[in-house]
Amino acid sequence: MTNRRRFLGGAAFLATCGVRMGGAVEASDEERTVDSPSDGGLPIVDTHVHLWDLDRLRLPWLAGGGPLARNFLPDDYREAAEGLDVVKGVYMEVDVDPAQHPDEAASVVELCRRGGEPLVGAVIGGRPASDAFGAYLDRFRESPEVKGVRRVLHGGETPPGTCLQPEFVRGIRLLGDRGLSFDLCMRPGELSDGAKLVDACPETSFILDHCGNPDVQAADLSAWRDDLSRLADRENLVCKVSGIVASAKPEAWTPDDLAPIINHVLDRFGPDRVVFGGDWPVCTRAASLRQWIGALNVVVADRSLADRKKLFHDNAIRVYRLMG
Questions:
Q1: pTM of this prediction?
Q2: DSSP string, 75-104
Q3: Which listed site, 43, 166, 182, 272, has its alpha carbon 20 to 30 Å from 305?
Q4: For the segment 85-127, what is each residue's pLDDT rounded down to a tens digit?
């Protein structure tokens, strides 16, 4: 059980972060305590920022509609991050129609170069198994803003074992040759495939997104815990503490619901191989960016200041090769 400083009551936590059990509100200055998400004094590098303009990009996974089926633009992110001391951000590809990968990448490189934005780097979408993957990467040889590539591996068009196909492995090795990383985003039941891929590409740096995608509401996380523990032995892999709040029960979760996953990741990967990611706006399925950061601060409150600074800032600078 967490201690008083971490003030576990779910209602108290939500009120402090600006939420009541009927909807979102702004927290007043009086409501913000030392444990509120904006206090910390720690600068934040958000390694997982999604943006999309549906007037320009096609996102097949949003075809069914829903709260996320609208534009989320840089001004919207700045509003969501206001007061949170986000000093840098890394754009994360948004699983667009593959034909639009070059357009998506070019637009975000331009955004990073504009200045005045939190975004200073990008992980772009790509298809590592494609024969044209090398030529695609060549487009960005003079774009240091491009830090890596991601291919989402948990969609219906990517059956188990996709990442172990020889063509896919070849493409991931090519990333290592180019000094680029790969964000590994996959179903939790396939983490053993992830381990095999990492082993097959020792010169490539990997970032495991969303703690390996466990379901916060799952009754039994033992298989995920075991698989993640084995995966954590790979030294060319770090883990991104992100995404998990999206699977929490909306308006009914507390930091305690997230703590077992977060603490297992931090304990197994250690303080030097973890980074923070907001996963905005996907996190808004259950929490605002402020609530997610607030909850994470609550969970890690008893860890050392040095380790918390590594999680929220220092490791991201190194892992994504950002300017300090």
A1: 0.89
A2: HHHHHHTTTS-EEEEEEE-----GGGHHHH
A3: 182
A4: 999 999 999 999 999 999 999 999 999 999 877 999 999 999 9
